[in-house]
Every structure is written in structure tokens, then in C-alpha cells.
Amino acid sequence: MSVPEEHASPARDAAAPAPSRPSAAVASASPAASAYPAEFARRELDGVRARRVALGLPFSACETTGRAGLSISGGGIRSATFALGVLQALARHGCLRHVDYLSTVSGGGYIGSFLGSLYLPAAARNGTETAVATPPAASTAPGAAQTAQRVERTLADADAPPIRWLREHGRYMAPRGAGDYLYAVAILLRNWIALPLAGFALTLVPLGWAYWLTQTRQDAPPTRRTASAAR
Question: Are the C-beta atoms of residues 180 and 173 closer than 8 Å to each other?
Fold first, then answer.
């Protein structure tokens, strides 16, 4: 007599192979591989390795990504001011050179662009020379360590010319000082006076026009009605 399906032997159930499931590593690796091409990842890793070797920072051959990244969020001039303080603190402690990746957005992009400009030659920053992108292998030159030291010294010095320039031009509300504040107050007073007058005029003109129409109709002589009554 055959055994019903629901009363099958446990040993037979255990011997049956379990349905195969894709591993989590394979499932998670596929979107990442398609989102970031392997060629870009290889070039990026070559650049990180070359920069770290030039600066004398540890980086083994088996590592597939950089070791440290810095992300600066948005928030306008407040975000840029806060991020500048973070960069200055990292520079004073010699930790800025350990950052391999930089990600910025909005106000963070403002200070991120400023940081990137510090790595350019002085002639390129002043506009007298065009900055040319160099391949990752060029960062192995001895000048890479000198550039990193120069950037950290500039950020660590609160009176450095680039820092003073950034602070002077960061006052977008009043870049020229007290004169801009007086100009802003004059515009505010003008708006307080002009806008109510303009609103009053826009309201008064339609009302006056409507009143004039009603008075014109009341004052018109009823000539046709009088003539009809006389007949």
C-alpha cells in the first residue's frame, strides 16, 4: 500500500535536495558592478595607490578601495563655514592627506571646490596658467608630498591669503561691508513705502471706475421714456 504524500518519511524528506537560492553576496554585487564600471574602479584604485605611495601612506596590494572618505553635506554658507573648520582641524593634525575620497553637495561643494583649487599650482589659481589634468602615475613624483604639505600648511594658517579671500567673499549678503548694509536698509524702507501705496492705488482705481460708471448711469436723462409717456 502506498504511503500518502502528507505522511512521507522524514528521512526521505531530509535526503531531498533543498531548492538553491542565490547568495546575498552575488545578489548585492550585481547592481554595484553595473552601476560603477570596472574600468573606472580600476583607474580610481590606481590613483589612490599612486597617491598613497607618493605620500608614504600605508596601502597594501590586496586592498580594493581607498581607506578614508570625507562627505560634506549641503546647507549654504553655514555648511561651507562648518566644513572649512573641519578641514582646518584635519590639516593641523596632518590627517587631511589620509582622505582618499571627497563627496560634496550644495554648500559642501563650495568648500570642496576651494579645497580642490589649493592643489593646483599658484599660476593656475591666479588665472595666468591653464590647469592640465595629469594621469594617476604623475602623482608619484616627489612634488606630491610637497603639495600635500603646502595645502595642509595653508589650511592650518588662519591668516593665509586663500583663507582670507574665502572669508571676504563668503559674506554674500554684504561683501563690501557697512555700505552694503546701508543699501539694504534703504531698499527695505523703499519697499515699505512703495508697496502699500501701490496696493492702495490698485485697489482704489477699480473702485473709482465702478463708482464713476454708476454715477454716469444715474445722471443720464431718460429722453426716450419721457417721449413715450407724452404720446
Answer: yes
Of 28-37, 95-104, 117-126, 209-218, the least confident: 28-37
Per-residue pLDDT, 67 = 86
Residue found by looking up cell 504511503 in the block: 3
Q: What is the 3-state secondary structure (H, E, C) of the chain?
A: CCCCHHHCCHHHHHHCCCCCCCCHHHHHHHHHHHHCCHHHHHHHHHHHHHHHHHHCCCCCCCCCCCCCEEEECCCHHHHHHHHHHHHHHHHHCCCHHHCCEEEECCHHHHHHHHHHHHCCCHHHHCCCCCCCCCCHHHHHCCHHHHHHHHHHHHHHCCCCHHHHHHHHHCCCCCCCCHHHHHHHHHHHHHHHHHHHHHHHHHHHHHHHHHHHHHHHHHHCCCHHHHHHHHC
**Residues 6 or more apart in contact with residue 142 via CB below 8 angstroms:** 54
Instruction: Provide mean pLDDT across the span 153-167.
Output: 90
Q: What is the pTM of this model?
A: 0.56
Q: What are phi and psi of 181, to 5 degrees?
A: -65, -40
Kindly report which listed range (12-16, 57-61, 89-93, 130-134) carries the lowest average pLDDT score. 12-16
pLDDT of residue 180: 81
